[in-house]
């Protein structure tokens, strides 16, 4: 099986300068993922789970270690030291990230947000419109929400939109940070269906969950994060 991601001896600390403190967020993290594999990570809030995903996506710099990623375009690269232009390309075309919080341009409708994700991959507007429609129908968004601004959405609606925006790209590697945090059981099943579909297509995934039941039968490996260490 083709290896897509390998994290070696990853360390990340945060320095609070005004207090003279150094907080160890994650230390000695080692993970390997093959194509189509899904790893689930659980743990208490503040244990360092999200730090791992943010280091992979390079929204956090690291103190030590390497993150080897098998890119379709660039081959095997260390995400921690590739040029910024290459990292931007990977975020756009190969690596997806689902956050608990929706970040979007002001005065941009839900439909435009999902369509933009498809358009920036180089597809036609007609194709983007069709894929956005399929996502909204899958998550059973009320028709009146399609062309509404997300700042009027509930927390669960924003999260479903965030998931749709990332998954519609069918990324090579997908990072899921609490993708079911504010969802009801029915919506969780809709997310699960998409994850299962992406797995069949070969998407590799790392997910952070508090809902252990959601992980059952879905994750190939499970880890628990305790004080910055994977158990």
TrEMBL record:
Molecular-function annotations in GO: ATP binding; ATP hydrolysis activity
Domain ABC transporter: 5-231
Pfam families in UniProt: ABC_tran
UniProt superkingdom: Bacteria
GO BP terms: organic phosphonate catabolic process
InterPro entries associated with the record: AAA+_ATPase, ABC_transporter-like_ATP-bd, P-loop_NTPase
Keywords associated with the record: ATP-binding, Nucleotide-binding
Protein name per Swiss-Prot or TrEMBL: Alpha-D-ribose 1-methylphosphonate 5-triphosphate synthase subunit PhnL
Native source species: Clostridium acidisoli DSM 12555
UniProt lineage: Bacteria, Bacillati, Bacillota, Clostridia, Eubacteriales
């Amino acid at each position: 099986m083709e290896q897509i991601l390998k994290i070696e001896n990853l360390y990340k600390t945060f320095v609070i300068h005004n207090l003279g403190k150094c907080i160890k967020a994650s230390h000695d993290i080692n993970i390997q993922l093959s194509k189509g594999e899904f790893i689930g990570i659980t743990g208490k809030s503040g244990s360092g789970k999200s730090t791992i995903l943010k280091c992979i996506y390079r929204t956090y710099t690291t103190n030590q270690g390497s993150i080897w990623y098998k890119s379709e375009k660039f081959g095997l690269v260390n995400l921690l030291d590739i040029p910024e232009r290459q990292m931007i390309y990977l975020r756009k075309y190969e690596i997806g990230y689902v956050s608990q919080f929706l970040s979007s341009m002001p005065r941009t409708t839900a439909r435009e947000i999902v369509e933009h994700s498809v358009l920036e991959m180089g597809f036609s507007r007609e194709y983007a419109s069709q894929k956005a429609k399929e996502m909204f129908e899958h998550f059973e968004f009320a028709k009146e929400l399609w062309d509404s601004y997300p700042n009027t959405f509930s927390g669960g609606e924003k999260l479903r939109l965030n998931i749709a925006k990332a998954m519609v790209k069918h990324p090579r590697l997908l990072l899921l940070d609490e993708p079911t945090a504010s969802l009801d059981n029915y919506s969780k099943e809709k997310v699960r269906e998409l994850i299962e579909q992406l797995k069949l297509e070969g998407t590799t995934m790392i997910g952070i969950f508090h809902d252990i039941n959601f992980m059952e039968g879905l994750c190939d490996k499970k880890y628990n994060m305790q004080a910055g260490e994977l158990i």
